[in-house]
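#dry-run=false #mode=assembly
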Amino acid sequence: DQQVKQNSPSLSVQEGRISILNCDYTNSMFDYFLWYKKYPAEGPTFLISISSIKDKNEDGRFTVFLNKSAKHLSLHIVPSQPGDSAVYFCAAKNNNAGNMLTFGGGTRLMVKP
Amino acid sequence: ETGVTQTPRHLVMGMTNKKSLKCEQHLGHNAMYWYKQSAKKPLELMFVYSLEERVENNSVPSRFSPECPNSSHLFLHLHTLQPEDSALYLCASSQDPVQRSSYNEQFFGPGTRLTVL
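#status=ok
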């Protein structure tokens, strides 16, 4: 049973528009959430994170929103750029579980020029 | 370039072969990880080594055998694999958090694409 789910396997967005990637989780013990970005032939790289004590974290064009009551988080990219085209993974850390992460299945984002 | 390298990048093997995947990190970290990414599935954590001791094994089949001779090197020994083991195998490293409630960023290698015939 997947504890972290990304229900959209792919998303296509026009350059300059907003990209919204969604992630749902089931484990209420998760207290820290991350987004990783993966280009073909490369490993995932860390993008942005949020602690469960916050509901928003912003870093440049990237903003992550956390809705704990709905067990939902989203990544907003605005404005989207063609270089943002990649697979985005949502991940979560269980409280008191050290560095162990549970990943979602990923969403492939395509930003069209 | 994340400071984590993996060799080989691609590997094709038969079910009776024995092969090994290698990972090396140049970041001075003290924890290393093996992940498996199958098609249309989430990344699955296979093994964690912290301070060169294995601290977690997520019920991975015994045909996968990890080895961590020092904090910079990690191997995954493979034998009598099945076609369903074909996947991208990713290595990662991090500084082990002092407190289990903390998190330190994991840095990933580019992966080894494994095909089992």
